[in-house]
Amino acid sequence: MDLQLLASVIVTLFVIMDPPGTVPIFMSLTAQMDARDRNLSALQALLVATGVIVTFAIFGQSILNYMHISLAALQGAGGLLLVLIALQLLTGSTGGEENATKYKNVAFVPLGTPLMAGPGAIVAVMVFVQRSGSMSQYLAVGLGIAVTLASLYLAMRFAGVVQRVLGENGVELVTRIAGLLLSAIAVQMIADSVHAFVTSWT
């Protein structure tokens, strides 16, 4: 297995999906639920996010070919999307509380998508799949996705415990650090995109 790629997938998706930062949003969206319904919502959100990400991972290349979109363009667009997400993490404007009253089943929307399987995660997964060329690399990408989704589920499943351990300030700090790391990843994706375009023109 490509351990370097595995680590890259886990770090990138962990920063994008931000399991610790999901805790306060999840708690606010499920505030009116009892423990059983809250756990069920966590499981449903995990299944929705898994379905969305796996679908784009498998059929992403076909979509790109049909729409005549290059990998460099996808990387550039993904970088710009990640910049927006990083700004949201850095400023704390996730909008989770405002969405709580808009949807009957918060596990599907907004938890499953777009909070967990949002555009940033989808683009990142598609880029990793595009870069993979061997079974060991595909396995690394799949395992990285599974580890990140499992951490998201555990964060929601034990949201109350995580929030008590980290405290409000701790969760806020982790979210800000995640935003900073994500902004660096976004800049790197944009730089790789520009480099790919320049190389193709020369």
Describe this entry's structure for a reader.
Helix 3 runs antiparallel to helix 8 and helix 4 packs antiparallel against helix 9 (159-201). The protein has helices at residues 3-17, 19-29, 35-67, 71-91, 96-99, 107-116, 119-131, 135-157, 159-201. The protein is built from 9 helices and no strands. With 202 residues, it is mostly helical.
Structure at a glance:
This protein is mainly α and 202 residues long. The protein has nine helices and no strands.
Task: For this entry, give a set of tags.
0% strand, mainly alpha, 86% helix, 202 residues
Topology, please?
Blueprint lengths: L2 H15 L1 H11 L5 H33 L3 H21 L4 H4 L7 H10 L2 H13 L3 H23 L1 H43 L1
Low-confidence stretches: 96-103
Shape verdict:
globular
**SSE arrangement, N to C:** HHHHHHHHH
- Count of DSSP helices? 9
Mean pLDDT: 84
Helix content: over 70%
What is the rounded distance between the termini? 34 Å
